[in-house]
Automatic annotation (TrEMBL):
Record keywords: Membrane, Transmembrane, Transmembrane helix
Organism expressing this protein natively: Schizophyllum commune (strain H4-8 / FGSC 9210)
Protein name stated in the entry: Phosphatidate cytidylyltransferase
Region (Disordered): 1-53
One GO MF term: ATP-dependent diacylglycerol kinase activity
Transmembrane segments: 135-150, 156-174, 204-233, 268-289, 301-326, 338-358
Biological processes annotated in GO: phosphatidic acid biosynthetic process
UniProt biased composition (Low complexity): 28-41
């Protein structure tokens, strides 16, 4: 056999082996021509005609590979997978794939996470205004003014409050011991209670103790203003703080000079509300209401003189500071219904002592 004949009778496998290594080796090549590895399977979706260009190109590539000696199986499927559908829709619209409802995929997780963050930013915490409680709290102030202008005696008020105290306090201990009575109790007066008071002594108990202390220890006009500060300044601080507290910084932990402890959970807006209300209470009471009972006034403000106007301005400033600080004090577990009238009344009582000493 000549060299020319040898070349003509060379097998296809020998020709492939002799060719330059620039072509891709097929995955099924082995020493034995009769044994081949499992054929790779390529899934093609039965897409609409408008999307058949990709499949046509794929078929051409497969045919070309078969011409080179490879073997592949083409399996037609009718349904596209969920991921392929998302990608096709995105390519068709030229937009980002829509997140899937089942939460699978990175795109879906990122989209859902961003949506949740945006939703969280838009959600504003619902404010509990405690309207029934605040109405009851504020009504005590109007009742106090009525008793003052109607020449009511503080002794009678103190006795009535002690009588209420002797009823309310035992009821608290009973509701702590008997769950059935507790449910009945909260059904009747629960709308006046805070959630934290359901497992603690009722705030009315501390309210009565604070008011009775003021009426017993201080002059009548000072005690009346202390009760008004408890009734109205405390309510103003709570209401204004809930409405605009998020727009102002929280209070520092201590006052600048005396280093008194303040509650950092309270806001500057609430402090200003209590201070302004306390100043208005002091000025309004000693100029309009206190003269009804001149014998019970701790100081006679002569507004026709400069000294009287200066004294009234000093009283307004002092009462405002005392109201704001007393309402914002952090005294641990002590209830502000007890501490507010005692502290504010004591500070006002000391102010009049100093004022009378200066004016004498």
């Amino acid at each position: 056999m000549t060299a020319h004949d040898s070349t003509l009778h060379t097998s296809p496998f020998d020709a492939v082996a002799a060719s330059p290594p620039r072509r891709r080796r097929r995955s099924s090549s082995s020493a034995s021509a009769t044994k081949r590895s499992p054929s790779p399977r390529i899934l093609l979706s039965g897409a609409p005609d408008s999307k058949g260009g990709v499949q046509n190109i794929t078929r051409k590539v497969i045919r070309k590979l078969e011409e080179l000696g490879g073997h592949m199986e083409i399996v037609e499927v009718n349904e596209s997978s969920e991921e392929e559908t998302v990608v096709e829709n995105a390519l068709t619209r030229g937009a980002t794939p829509e997140p899937q409802a089942n939460g699978n995929g990175v795109a879906n997780g990122v989209a859902n996470g961003d949506a949740a963050k945006e939703k969280a930013k838009e959600v504003v915490k619902k404010i509990d205004w405690e309207i029934p409680r605040k109405l009851f709290h504020s009504s005590i102030g109007f009742f106090t003014i009525y008793l003052y202008v109607s020449q009511g005696t503080p002794v009678a008020v103190v006795r009535a409050l002690w009588g209420a105290f002797c009823i309310i306090l035992p009821l608290d201990f009973v509701r702590f011991r008997y769950p059935q009575f507790e449910r009945l109790y909260e059904r009747v007066v629960g709308f006046l209670m805070r959630d934290c008071e359901r497992d603690q002594i009722n705030g009315v108990v501390w309210y009565i103790l604070g008011v009775n202390f003021a009426l017993t220890a201080y002059p009548l006009d000072v005690a009346t203003v202390a009760i008004l500060i408890l009734s109205w300044a405390d309510t103003a601080a709570s209401t204004i703080g809930r409405a605009w507290g998020r727009l102002t910084p929280p209070l520092p932990r201590r006052t600048p000079v005396l280093r008194l402890p303040l509650a950092p959970r309270k806001s500057l807006a609430g402090f200003i509300g209590a201070s302004v209300t306390g100043a208005l209470i002091a000025v309004g009471f000693w100029t309009l209401i206190a003269p009804v009972r001149p014998a019970d006034m701790s100081f006679q403000f002569d507004l026709s003189s400069t000294s009287g106007c200066v004294a009234l301005a000093a009283l307004a400033l002092w009462a405002g500071i005392v109201s704001g600080v007393a309402e914002a004090l952090d005294l641990g577990s002590m209830d502000d219904n007890l501490t507010l009238p005692i502290i504010s009344g004591g500070c006002l009582f000391g102010f009049f002592k100093v004022l009378n000493w200066i004016m004498s």
